[in-house]
Amino acid sequence: xxxxxxxxxxxxxxxxxxxxxxxxxxxxxxxxxxxxxxxxxxxxxxxxxxxxxxxxxxxxxxxxxxxxxxxxxxxxxxxxxxxxxxxxxxxxxxxxxxxxxxxxxxxxxxxxxxxxxxxxxxxxxxxxxxxxxxxxxxxxxxxxxxxxxxxxxxxxxxxxxxxxxxxxxxxxxxxxxxxxxxxxxxxxxxxxxxxxxxxxxxxxxxxxxxxxxxxxxxxxxxxxxxxxxxxxxxxxxxxxxxxxxxxxxxxxxxxxxxxxxxxxxxxxxxxxxxxxxxxxxxxxxxxxxxxxxxxxxxxxxxxxxxxxxxxxxxxxxxxxxxxxxxxxxxxxxxxxxxxxxxxxxxxxxxxxxxxxxxxxxxxxxxxxxxxxxxxxxxxxxxxxxxxxxxxxxxxxxxxxxxxxxxxxxxxxxxxxxx
Length: 418
What we know:
Blueprint: H1 2-26, H2 34-68, H3 71-91, H4 107-120, H5 133-142, H6 161-164, H7 169-187, H8 189-195, H9 201-207, E1 212-214, E2 217-218, H10 221-252, H11 260-291, H12 308-331, H13 338-367, H14 385-408
Antiparallel strand pairs: 1-2
Helix pairs in contact: 1-13, 2-3, 2-10, 2-12, 4-7, 7-14, 8-13, 8-14, 9-10, 10-12, 11-12, 11-14, 12-13
Pfam families: PTR2
Main location: membrane
Family: Belongs to the major facilitator superfamily. Phosphate:H(+) symporter (TC 2.A.1.9) family. Belongs to the major facilitator superfamily. Proton-dependent oligopeptide transporter (POT/PTR) (TC 2.A.17) family.
């Protein structure tokens, strides 16, 4: 009970830390300063790169310590490192920039008030405004989406002046920015389902293949995917930040090289390519098992290992899609809601993993009826993992098509309000 209590405490800490620390780091850059605005775009690239690079240490060092010197030391070293990290963080307290709400109102309250008032006065005619007509005209020109929320700026004559002025243009725009994120959130779920596969089914594929690379040295299946994933990210993120972005910046004249929705779209497409390649590899693995008479010998390694391309493609897709989603959900909400925006991004990955598990369970129940081998049979040589990958391809195509549709009409949030 003591052990599991602290495991859950670690999970609770991660839930509060992960999205807040990214928002806090990005808040240290001044959006109005041209040089710092460019640097903030790179921040998300290097954040993800160093996060993945940090995983190499436990993979190469801590796993050895835990297996050979004991778990007490294996857990103790990270605990000491975290204490040192906390000290360094506190030492820098006087240098940090803090974003404070200008009016002191709780952001959840003021945004929820917009939805409540818009619903309450949805039949009201625009005869009594909580802002002057000139301001409403500016709002109408710059924000044509979700105009039903403009009703939050309208109140009947018999309502008090204080109630009329409670919702500002900024409040309405912040509420609209949350709604604009919802279609992008939904369309990214297909990507998140594919994102879950390298850590699960890709590894299962690897367990059936010959992983000897140097003489008799056999790379563990789990380590294989970790090394490919981490090395790809550590190598490609600097290439993206120092080569791709400057070239794109020279062409498009944008500080980030390409827009956030373009970056996410490229990532979704590459993710789709990776799962298509995985389907072809699985089909070839099955054909090789038949050729060598290994269909009913699941414990014999199949003489092929072509998993590197799908691992590499999947992680290059993350450089575009995952980092793009981080920056997008951070930028497209108000200053008060930056951490909530990043929490929305993280929820895409969490829900995607749940959907992946749900699909696997559902398909397993359907395909194993009447005693047949299912798509995920224990003997992988009689399974049909390629069918599942093609199903994910279909989901990915639908998600990408929907994303392109919503991204083309997406209206970026303004940085300031009249």
